[in-house]
Design a protein that fits this description.
signal; seven-stranded mixed beta barrel; mainly beta; single chain
């Protein structure tokens, strides 16, 4: 157990930079489903972050006593480290099928929790003979809100409509009608049902003709990189920092365009002009340029929700002509205290005095944290307390200690971060 703790603490610094997949209690089909730096103890699996949390110490200790076997740490895609002797072993050394718990949560099989038909209108092909096909989009989410639209799990969904057959694949719906769709002026109902989970939905879509007016829609769009004028990173919980996704769009004639009206008419949007995103923590919206309202911009912001680790996010743009484009971005974990260093004060502290104790607090991105509101209640102090300065920043003052002796007396101050990191100093209390 002693060696186990040592390896965990050595790997702890690496965890913040390495983990990018969210912690979830979903079914494990093989070695590749195990996140790097996971610890396996018998039937239990833990992230290093979870295992290093002092609040979970008893749970980890109980797991070790129960398993009476080897402890393994996955360090990369090639295999494990056997923590008992530090040797490297291959990926088959751990039977993944025997793992029943992930961070104390029972592992269950992933399943569909929600089906959203994200279009508000059914775009009908303009044909010279027969009936034009209809097109729309949909999204499938699991119980954790993850977008699983393009996974095999979503392939079993059955789509139906009274106007013909409906085929759904990778977020795109195709309605092959047995009648003229354009005659349904009151709309067309499409139903979706997953026979495994029992989840179902139905939506009425208005019917529109693709390219009814020359230049009234888009023929193509390509999403480019995400940019912020201040060079910031997209961070969970930060609803005020705005990003814009660059794009190259073409009208029905193939001419490049940035026209807002054309974008509004040519893109498949939901709600308040929203594009499709793979995460509920990120919003992508078509908006007017505040300087020139005739220009359309794709505004991207994070929601107020917080996340456990950095998360990959995909933004999708679908045109009514059936073309699409995606960009992959990373939503950074919200700024949280990661490192905290106490510094021994340079001035003397006498019996019964409370003086300022210097400190340095950093978030996981190595940014300085100074606000009282972000420190008090988040960092646990022993032997000292946080106080608010007039400008809203925080200072630390030692608790008063009385020294009745003529010799120096030592007093300890310790700080513990939410990630379990410690900083401790001893200060000398002089006799008055």
């Amino acid at each position: 157990m002693k060696n186990f703790k040592k390896i965990m603490m050595m790997g702890f610094v690496l965890l913040i930079a390495t983990l990018s997949r969210p912690v979830m209690a979903l079914g494990l089909s093989g070695f590749s489903d195990v996140t790097n730096f996971s610890v396996v103890i018998g039937e239990n699996m833990y992230t290093l972050e979870y295992a290093n949390d002092l609040n979970n110490a008893k749970q980890i200790s109980d797991a070790v006593l129960k398993s009476k076997g080897d402890i393994f740490i996955k360090i990369d895609d090639n295999g494990w480290i056997n923590n008992n002797d530090g040797s490297r072993v291959n990926k088959d050394s751990v039977d993944i099928s025997t793992i029943k718990y992930n961070n104390g949560i029972a592992i269950t099989q992933q399943k569909i929790a929600k089906i959203n038909i994200t279009s508000t209108k059914l775009e009908v092909d303009n044909v010279t003979s027969g009936f034009g096909d209809g097109h729309a989009t949909y999204q499938v989410l699991d119980s954790l809100g993850n977008d699983i639209t393009t996974t095999s799990l979503a392939n079993g969904i059955i789509f139906k409509s009274g106007v013909g057959t409906v085929e759904g694949k990778n977020g795109r719906l195709k309605v092959t009608p047995n009648m003229n769709l354009l005659t349904f002026t009151s709309g067309i109902v499409i139903t979706a049902n997953d026979p495994i989970s029992g989840i179902s939905t139905n939506t009425k879509l208005s019917v529109t003709l693709a390219g009814a007016t020359q230049g009234s829609t888009l023929s193509d769009i390509k999403l480019l990189s995400l940019k912020n004028v201040d060079g910031k990173m997209l961070t969970a919980g930060d609803t005020t920092t705005v990003f814009y996704a660059g794009y190259l769009a073409k009208d029905i004639s193939g001419i490049p365009t940035t026209n807002y009206t054309l974008m509004e008419q040519g893109l498949i949007l939901t709600g308040d002009h929203m594009l499709n995103t793979s995460s509920p923590y990120v919003v992508a919206q078509l908006v007017k340029d505040p300087i020139d309202p005739s220009i359309g911009l794709i505004k991207v912001t994070a929601t107020s929700d917080t996340i456990l680790t950095d998360r990959p996010v995909v933004i999708n743009a679908f045109t009514l002509k059936g073309t699409s484009s995606t960009i992959s971005i990373t939503l950074k974990k919200q700024a949280e205290i990661d490192s905290f260093i106490l510094i021994v004060p340079s001035e003397d502290i006498y019996s019964g005095e409370s003086k300022v104790i210097p400190f340095i607090a950093l978030d996981q991105n190595a940014n300085l944290i100074t606000k009282f509101s972000e420190l008090d209640g988040h960092v646990r102090l022993v032997g000292a307390t946080f106080e608010r300065n007039s400008d809203g920043t925080a200072c630390i003052k030692n608790n008063k200690v009385y020294n009745p002796m003529t010799a120096l007396m030592s007093a300890n101050i310790t700080a513990i971060t939410p990630t379990g990191k410690h900083s401790s100093i001893n200060i000398n209390i002089q006799h008055k």
